[in-house]
Design goal:
This protein is an alpha/beta fold and about 260 residues long. The protein is built from 13 helices and 10 strands.
């Protein structure tokens, strides 16, 4: 099985991308909704949560783990990766790699939560891949709440997105990274407001592609993964809103189990 975890509902966009890219592969998702958001916690606390989440998924028998959360991805350490004992994928490197490959002008924008933008993790990763890139970041702290409230098509959301993107439009970027796994829910609106000439990099799609390519080159691991098209969704707290947004993202009936 392929395991994924996030602080809550945003990582379901990654689960959706995996289900689309690898439709026959069994999947286990854990949303740590009782302790969300991770972005307000210390690095030490987030790393403790990561270890617990990895342990939970390992107990479920997963052979690959995807950290479907930008905050948690930025808090990973070599010690955590080694202790996981299975390949661990995060959402930052694949998105940065995709942006570096597709950008012609080398002018790249990033939107994310305040914590992700403040960490500078995307800038550091991009500079390793494309030292000549000009990188512009913009924190968009309200977007997660708007997604979780289900305000996807509200005019207020469109106005807020437009205002957030204005500084990046003035920089004439040609590529924009959605640096939060909630943001793909607003991808159409973001694309509309940033303009047709700007490439949108969806981190959920980027990591799904990365996992698929990895399995092609590691057939021995691929052979260990169950392929019965089944999915299990666990959360640390079940709320009506979580159920609603999960249904909206995945477009299928989702049975949540609390752990």
């Amino acid at each position: 099985m392929i395991g994924l975890f996030d602080s809550g509902v945003g990582g379901l966009t990654v689960a959706k991308a995996i289900m689309k890219s690898l439709p026959t592969y069994d999947l286990v998702y854990f949303g740590d909704s009782a302790r969300a958001p991770y972005g307000t916690k210390s690095q030490q606390t987030i790393q403790a949560y990561i270890r617990e989440n990895i342990y939970f998924l390992r107990e479920k028998g997963v052979k690959i783990i995807i950290v479907a959360c930008n905050t948690a991805s930025s808090a990973l350490t070599e010690e955590i990766l080694e202790a996981a004992q299975v390949p661990v994928f995060e959402v930052i490197s694949p998105a940065a790699q995709a942006a570096a490959q597709i950008s012609h002008s080398r002018s790249i924008g990033i939107i994310g939560t305040s914590g992700t933008v403040k960490s500078g993790v995307y800038e550091k990763t991009l500079k390793k891949i494309a030292p000549d890139a000009r990188i512009y970041s913009k924190a968009c702290p309200l977007l997660v709440s708007l997604v979780e409230e289900g305000w996807i098509t509200k005019p207020e959301t469109a106005s807020i997105v437009k205002k957030y993107l204005l500084p990046l439009k003035s920089k004439q970027i040609d590529t924009l990274i959605l640096g939060c796994t909630h943001y793909p829910v607003l991808k159409e609106l973001i694309a509309q407001k940033i303009g047709k000439k700007v490439n949108i990099i969806d981190s959920s799609e980027a990591v799904a592609t990365s996992v698929k390519e990895y399995l092609k080159t590691h057939p021995e691991l691929d052979a260990q993964l169950a392929k019965t098209s089944q999915s299990w969704f666990y959360v640390s707290d079940i709320t009506t809103q979580f159920k609603k947004i999960a249904q909206q993202i995945l477009k299928i009936h989702v049975k949540l189990e609390q752990v």
